[in-house]
Write a structure and sequence with these properties.
Blueprint: H1 8-22, H2 44-51, H3 55-62, H4 71-80, H5 85-95, H6 111-119, E1 125-129, E2 134-137, H7 139-144, H8 158-164, H9 175-192, H10 197-209, H11 211-218, E3 227-234, E4 238-247, E5 255-262, H12 265-276
Antiparallel strand pairs: 1-2, 1-5, 3-4, 4-5
Helix pairs in contact: 2-3, 2-4, 4-5, 10-11
Pfam families: HTH_31, MLTR_LBD
GO molecular function, one term: DNA binding
Domain HTH cro/C1-type: 34-88
Length: 277
C-alpha cells in the first residue's frame, strides 16, 4: 500500500485554481467582458485586482512557483475568492499561516448552544468564550458553583469569579492549582487572540487588582487542558469530586462547552442531592 503525503505547495496551487474557476463574475458585480470567456470563473487578473496583489503573483501561486504567502495575502485571497469559513481555514493551513478571526469575539451564546447547555441537565454545564466569559449555564451549575444570573454581565467571567467571588474563594480544596491552571489557560487564549482589546483589558485589570494573579501571570505558564478532576468543599453538599470535560463546537471554535460529572459514587449522591433542591 502506497502512502501519499500532501505537497502543500501544489495543493495550494490547485485549490486556488478550483476556487477561482467556481466563481461567477456576474455574482460579484464585475463588468461583462467584450469577448466570451474561454474558461469558467474569474480571470487571474480579476482575482489579483480583488485581492490587491499583482497578476504575476497569482500566476506563480497557481503554478506552484510562488513563495509562501503571508497571513495578510492569504486573508486577501480568501476574501477575493469568497471562501467559506472551512475553506478559509484550509487555505491558511496550506500556506502555513494561522487563521485570523474575521468576526468580533462572541459575547452571546448561539441559541442552539444555549439550548444544549439546558438539555444537559442534570449534569452541570456552562458555555464559555475564549476569554472565559460565561455565556450560558444551567440550573445545576448554579447550585454547584455560583448563580451567575445574580452577577452583572461584566462580572460573569470564570477566571474573575474564581479569583474574587466570595463564594468560590473557599470552594476548591486545591484552590492554588485551580487558579494556576486557569491563568495558564488564559495566557494561551491571550496568545491566540492578541488583538482582542477586551481580553487585554481583563488581564490588565486583574494584574492591577489581584496580587496572586499578577504573580502567577508573570510566571508565564501555558496550559490547554480539556479534562480533569476538581475537589470541592461545598457548603451544602460537603466534600465531593467532580470530573470536567471541555468540548469545542465545530461551528464556534472560540467557544467551550464545560460539563461536570461526579467522579465517584459518593460524589454522585452528593451532587444529586444538591441539584435536586
Amino acid at each position: 500500500m502506497t502512502t501519499h503525503t500532501v505537497d502543500t505547495t501544489q495543493e495550494l496551487a490547485a485549490f486556488l485554481r478550483t476556487r477561482r474557476e467556481r466563481l461567477d463574475p456576474r455574482a460579484l458585480g464585475l463588468p461583462s467582458p467584450r469577448r466570451a470567456r474561454r474558461t469558467p470563473g474569474l480571470r487571474r487578473e480579476e482575482v489579483a485586482d480583488l485581492a490587491g496583489v499583482s497578476v504575476d503573483y497569482v500566476v506563480r501561486l497557481e503554478q506552484g512557483r510562488g513563495p509562501r504567502p503571508s497571513a495578510d495575502v492569504v486573508d486577501a485571497l480568501a476574501r477575493a475568492l469568497r471562501l467559506a469559513p472551512a475553506e478559509r481555514a484550509y487555505l491558511f493551513g496550506l500556506a502555513g499561516q494561522r487563521p485570523r478571526n474575521p468576526d468580533e469575539p462572541t459575547t452571546t451564546a448561539a441559541p442552539t448552544l444555549a439550548r444544549l447547555v439546558a438539555d444537559l441537565s442534570p449534569l452541570p454545564a456552562m458555555l464559555l468564550n475564549h476569554r472565559y466569559d460565561i455565556l450560558a449555564w444551567n440550573h445545576e451549575m448554579t447550585r454547584l458553583l455560583v448563580d451567575f444570573g445574580t452577577l452583572p454581565p461584566a462580572r460573569r467571567n470564570a477566571i474573575r469569579v474564581c479569583l474574587t467571588h466570595p463564594e468560590t474563594r473557599e470552594l476548591y480544596v486545591d484552590r492554588g492549582r485551580v487558579v494556576r491552571d486557569g491563568i495558564a489557560h488564559l495566557r494561551a487564549a491571550w496568545a491566540a487572540h492578541p488583538d482582542d482589546p477586551a481580553l487585554t483589558g481583563l488581564i490588565a485589570e486583574l494584574i492591577a487588582a489581584d496580587e496572586e494573579f499578577a504573580r502567577l501571570w508573570n510566571e508565564r505558564d501555558i496550559e490547554v487542558n480539556g479534562r480533569g478532576d476538581k475537589v470541592l468543599r461545598h457548603p451544602d453538599a460537603g466534600v465531593l469530586t467532580v470530573r470536567f470535560e471541555v468540548l469545542t463546537p465545530l461551528q464556534d471554535p472560540d467557544q467551550r462547552l464545560v460539563i461536570f460529572r461526579a467522579a465517584d459514587d459518593e460524589s454522585k449522591a452528593a451532587l444529586d442531592r444538591l441539584c435536586a433542591r
